[in-house]
UniProtKB/TrEMBL annotation:
It comes from Parascedosporium putredinis. GO terms for molecular function: heme binding; iron ion binding; monooxygenase activity; oxidoreductase activity, acting on paired donors, with incorporation or reduction of molecular oxygen. The chain crosses the membrane at residues 20-45. Pfam families: p450. Keywords: Heme, Iron, Membrane, Metal-binding, Transmembrane, Transmembrane helix. SUPFAM superfamilies: Cytochrome P450. This is Uncharacterized protein. Gene3D superfamilies: Cytochrome P450. Its cofactor is heme. Belongs to the cytochrome P450 family.
Length: 408
């Protein structure tokens, strides 16, 4: 007797149910075998079947991002990458889908910035505004205010040199004082005022430590950015005392300075209403926002101004620390530098006292060479930023190799 449609539907439903039940029973009985098998299969796929499999590198890096985490945590990534290239050649696999020396930078929770913007046209719009306050003309306009920080810094060092009863007992951490100096200078450049590091001679509110800790976080979690949502972007974080990202000194100062200049109008052009009316970095960014708020938002103003202090102070201090360490540690270099400066003073190319202008410093060729070499030997940024291969793929000049889409 032919089956009716309802009978067929009933049989089909029963068959589907039995298949599902059997599958669940099978998984429940053999999960201890299936899970390891799936794990091993995934490792084998990453190791041998992914587009990046053709490139050499550490075995751990071919199956997991753990190699990058360990390398970054060691603080010797730059040296390890050099060793890898010496061992494996021009292209090295450092993660299942990454080659060469790269870093995923974790965007700040407050607002994405120009370092993390991957849309080229949007990045170009933001960079156009962010570049203006760093021009030579803008820096020269702020030179008198920077000179004040230089003179305060030198007076502190002179005090250490002339005071035999100094609490330092003849020892001064020049690296720390260079960091205080960088922070106060960036404060003058960005917000039109010092942060008080030089005056107090200490890490105010642990701001430098906060930045150092954040750099470690960005470096390590940047290798496994998915974990950022578990830690810094976790919505529960704001309910934990002392864990909110808005509590940091630099973040508070940036937000407070923006509030102080509100409302943003073309009348005051973003300048501090109670200050000396200087054209600092924040004022320049606000003016860029006023020209086209749709392309450079208030969030962008905050992100760039915040980054100028947060990242700028650390990289500036690192560069100065590298220069002084290498110059002071080598008697020959130190002697040539002193001879060049004395000759320049005798010839009238630089003043016998006071601060040097940028133009005057360019006449000191050996000094300029030492400065560039210090940045080359010890770059302020030890990890590079990733480059994502575009949809139609991107041809590498190295061996004319073609990388797969979305590899890094």
């Amino acid at each position: 007797m032919p089956s009716t449609p309802s009978t067929e539907a009933g049989l089909g439903g029963a068959g589907s149910t039995s298949i599902v039940a059997a599958s669940i029973s099978f998984l429940g009985s053999y999960w201890f075998v299936l899970l390891p098998a799936l794990f091993v299969t995934r490792l084998l796929y990453r190791r041998y079947a992914m587009p990046m499999s053709k490139y050499p590198g550490p075995a751990l890096a071919s199956v997991s991002r753990l190699w990058k985490v360990i390398s970054t945590a060691s603080g010797r990534t730059n040296l390890q990458h050099i060793d890898l290239h010496r061992k494996y050649g021009p292209i090295v696999r450092i993660a299942p889908n990454e080659q060469d020396q790269v870093l995923r930078r974790v965007p700040p929770p407050e607002n994405p910035d120009i370092f993390t913007e991957v849309r080229e046209h949007v990045h170009a719009q933001k960079k156009k505004v962010a570049n203006v306050p760093y021009s030579m003309a803008a820096m020269q306009q702020l030179s008198p205010f920077i000179d004040e920080s230089i003179e305060l810094f030198m007076s502190k060092l002179d005090g250490f040199a002339t005071s035999s009863q100094s609490a330092t007992k003849g020892r001064v951490d020049l690296g720390a004082w260079l960091h205080y100096f960088a922070f106060d200078v960036l404060g003058e450049v960005a917000f039109g005022r010092k942060f008080g590091f030089l005056e107090e001679g200490r890490d105010v509110e642990g701001a430098i430590k906060t930045i150092d800790d954040s750099q470690w976080y960005n470096g390590i979690i940047g290798q496994i950015p998915e974990f950022d949502h578990l830690f810094r972007r976790n919505p529960l974080r704001k309910y934990i005392p002392g864990m909110s990202t808005g509590n940091a000194l630099v973040t508070r100062l940036a937000l407070a300075e923006m509030d102080r200049r509100q409302p943003f109008t073309k009348d005051n052009m973003g300048k501090n209403r109670v200050g000396d009316g200087r054209q600092d970095l924040l004022a320049s960014l606000i003016q860029g926002h006023l020209k086209d708020p749709s392309k450079f938002s208030e969030g962008d103003v905050f992100a760039v101004a915040h980054g100028a202090i947060f990242a700028g102070s650390d990289s500036t201090a690192s560069t100065m620390q590298s220069f002084f360490w290498h110059a002071l540690a080598d008697a020959r270099v130190r002697r040539i530098l002193f001879e060049e400066i004395r000759a320049a003073v005798a010839e009238g190319r630089v003043p016998i006292d006071g601060n040097l202008s940028w133009v005057e410093s360019q006449s000191l060729s050996y000094f300029q060479a030492c400065l560039k070499e210090a940045m080359r030997v010890r770059p302020a940024v030890g990890l590079n930023i990733t480059r994502v291969v575009p949809p139609r793929a991107w041809s590498l000049m190295v061996n004319f190799t073609l990388l797969a889409q979305s590899s890094l």
